[in-house]
Design a protein that fits this description.
The complex is a heterodimer of chains A (about 110) and B (about 120). Chain A has about 110 residues and is mainly β. Chain A has no helices and 11 strands. In chain A, strands 2, 4, 5, 6, 9, 10 and 11 form a 7-stranded mixed β-sheet that branches. In chain A, strands 1-3-8-7 form a 4-stranded antiparallel β-sheet, with no helix packed on it. Chain A starts with a strand and ends with a strand. Chain B is mainly beta and about 120 residues long. Chain B has no helices and 11 strands. In chain B, the strands form 2 sheets. In chain B, strands 2, 4, 5, 6, 9, 10 and 11 form a 7-stranded mixed β-sheet that branches. Chain B has a 4-stranded antiparallel β-sheet with strand order 1-3-8-7, with no helix packed on it. Chain B is globular, with a radius of gyration of 14 Å. Chain B starts with a strand and ends with a strand. The chains are: A mainly beta (about 110), B mainly beta (about 120). At the A-B interface, strand 4, strand 5 and strand 10 of A face strand 5 and strand 10 of B.
Chain lengths: ~110, ~120
Amino acid sequence: DIQMTQSPSSVSASVGDRVTITCRAGQGISSWLAWYQQKPGKAPKLLIYAASTLQSGVPSRFSGSGSGADFTLTIDGLQPEDFATYYCQQADRVPYTFGQGTKLEIK
Amino acid sequence: QVTLKESGPALVKPTQTLTLTCTFSGFSLSTSGMRVSWIRQPPGKALEWLARIDWDDDKFYSTSLESRLTISKDTSKNQVVLTMTNMNPVDTATYYCARILTSGSFVGDAFDIWGQGTMVTVSS
C-alpha cells in the first residue's frame, strides 16, 4: 500500500491568510492525487483532482500543485467557511490511501 | 443530479456480519467506466478506503480487510452492497459510499460524489 503523509497535522490561521498543506506519497504516483475538505458531521467534498484540477464549483482561492511524490494544497485568502479538515488521497491505484488529515483552525 | 445514500444497522454486536447498502441515482453502474467505492471513518480519525466495484463487476479490496469484505452490485436496483464479517468494536465508524470521477481520459480515481454516511457502532 502507498503511504500518504500530510503536514502539518493542524494549522492555525486568520481570515485572509494564505495557507499551504503538503502531502507526500510513499512512492511516485504521477499526478494522481486528490484533495478533499471535510467539515464536522459531513461527508468529504472533492476540491482538486489530478493534483491541480479544480473540481467544478470550487472557489479559485484553492489550488493544487505537485507531481511524483510531493504535492501541495494552497488556500489563498482564507474565508470563514474554509476552516475544516483537509485530506489528500492517492488516486493512482488500488488500494487507495488517504493522508491522516490537516485540521485548519481559526487563529 | 447524482446522489448516493447509505443504509444499514446503526448497531451491531461483536462477531456479527454487517451488511450496508448504497442506493444511488443519476448514473448507472452498467455504464462503461462507472465505479463505486466504500470508505469509512472512525470517530475523530482519518478516512480509510475499503472496497471498489466496477461496471464490469471487477472488485477490489483493502489489503488489511480483504478477508472480511464482500462487495456486490444490483444494477437493476441501482445498489451496491458491502458485507463485513466478524465485526469488532474497532470497526465502529461512519461508512460512506462514493462514486469515482469519470472522464474521457484517465484523471485519477478521485471520489467526486459521496453519500451522507451511516454511523455503525459495534458493541455488545
